[in-house]
Amino acid sequence: MKMIFKRKEKIGYKAKYLGGHSAFPKPMKCEIQLLPDHIFIPEMPLKIRYEQIENVQSMTKEKLTVMRLLLLNILAFALKKKKLYMVLTYKDEFDVRHNMVFDVKNIEEVQPAIYRRMIEAKQKTTIP
Asked: For the whole model, what pTM was predicted?
């Protein structure tokens, strides 16, 4: 059974980018824009097609290991206890994996929306 999701052309979510992408090492305020076929972050500017996304999940400070904190260039004191952070993992056009970490106010809304679009895009690419 194919799932169909009704959605607006563009939905934007205010966030704070904390790190995880080599081209953008500094934290910054940003907007995560969900478009029909990709995510756009105008402050970087960065376009991520849904089929490039490998995973989107929420993690607490405790789940972000020391190795991951060092890898993502995030200082431990910048993360608040028990707060959820969205981790967006994707491969770029050069096959480089990025684990971008965001502090998103509406994580319970944006994370499932990205996940649904990721699954929908992967279903389209696997259907002959």
From this structure: 0.77
Q: What is the CATH number of the domain that holds 114?
A: 2.30.29.30
Q: Which structural domain range is residue 38 located in?
A: 11-126
pLDDT along the chain (128 residues), means of 10: 44 93 94 95 96 91 60 52 86 94 92 94 76
What gap in Å lies between CA 98 and CA 92, rounded to an integer? 8
At which residue do the structure tokens 């994580």 appear?
107
Q: How far is Cα 110 from Cα 125, in angstroms, rounded to an integer?
A: 23
Sign of torsion, CA 20 25 26 28?
negative
Q: Is residue 3 part of a domain?
A: no
